Amino acid sequence: MTHAHRSPAPTPARRRFLAEAGGLGLLFACAPLLRAEPRVAAAGDVRHWLDQVETLSRRLRENTLTSLQWRSEIDAVNTAAPLAEYLPQLQFDRALQAMQRAGKDPAKTFIRLGDIDGGPAQAAFAAAYFVFAKGQVITPHGHRGMVSAHAVVSGRLHARTYDRLGRDGDALLLRPRLDTRAQPGFSAAISAIEGNVHWFVAERDASATLDVIVQDVDANGREFAIELVDPLAAKPDADGTIRAPLISWEESSRRYQGAAG
Fold first, then answer.
1. Which of 57, 91, 141, 246 is most buried, judging by how many CB atoms fall within 10 Å of its CB?
2. What pTM was estimated for this model as a whole?
């Protein structure tokens, strides 16, 4: 029998992350034009990338695109664009400065999007950097009520993703999807099923991902939740399925922070 599971209360740092993410759902709610600061020659290319991401994310929120289709198309957009060349325009310096102040967790910095009159944009997505010192980890976790795409723009990360097959009591049923050393040019998006659980370990200082985040979508329900899991706790079945226990934020940090990539 499947039992209801209540996610453990997050730590203060995690609460700030969740509150920040929740606020973005209000700030980036609907859709006008986006622009990049015209500081380098590639401003038009950055604007084109932003417009593509906006179109895909708006279609997802309007239910004219499934999360599976969004996953495939956003990865294609990310891998076709030279995102590492856009970093000066997309405020990467702010992200690097935040990393220098961070503790054991990667530094998360939202990108300020502007509309054509210079005010804050109301977009269907949010964009953010995760910047890592060597050895820092985003511990294994799954998602509800949101999707995201993670493009490596600096350094190298050990990236592992899992398909989400269902739930069994206080565990998620997973199947390994990807296990790779990811460098600039790599993008791994999630859907409600494919790649829904992921885990990143930085192998170099100043490794970074540029993330696109879309909230308030029907992905394992609409209620936003991050679900920490322990994929190392069980051996795969004959068909590759793993029964990964749901664990607390504290246990996830103890188990996976500082672990070998």
1. 57
2. 0.82
- Which amino acid, residue 159? A
- Cβ distance 203 to 156 under 8 Å? yes
227 neighbors 139 (Cβ within 8 angstroms)? no
Among 144, 174, 170, CA closest to 161:
174
Exposed e or buried b per residue across 60-69, where buried means at least 16 C-beta atoms within 10 angstroms of its C-beta: bbeeebbbee
Asked whether the beta carbons of 174 and 244 are under 8 A apart, the reply is yes
Task: Kindly report, residue by residue over 80-121, the tens digit of the pLDDT.
Answer: 999 999 988 888 988 888 888 867 789 999 998 876 666 666
DSSP-derived secondary structure letter, 252: H
pLDDT tens sequence across 148-167: 999 999 999 999 999 999 99
Could you tell me which residues come within 8 angstroms of residue 27 by beta carbon, excluding any fewer than 6 positions away? 120, 122, 126
Give per-residue pLDDT as tens, 175-197. 999 999 999 999 999 999 999 99
DSSP class of 95: H
3 state DSSP class of 75: helix
CB 154 within 8 A of CB 206: yes
List of residues 6+ apart from 243 with CB closer than 8 A: 168, 171, 172, 173, 174, 234
3-state secondary structure of 176: strand
Tokens 């009520």 sit at which residue?
145
Q: Could you tell me how many residues make up the chain? A: 261
Contact 244, 233 (CB under 8 A): yes
* Both tokens assigned to 218: 């029907």
Cα 166 from Cα 66, distance rounded (Å): 18
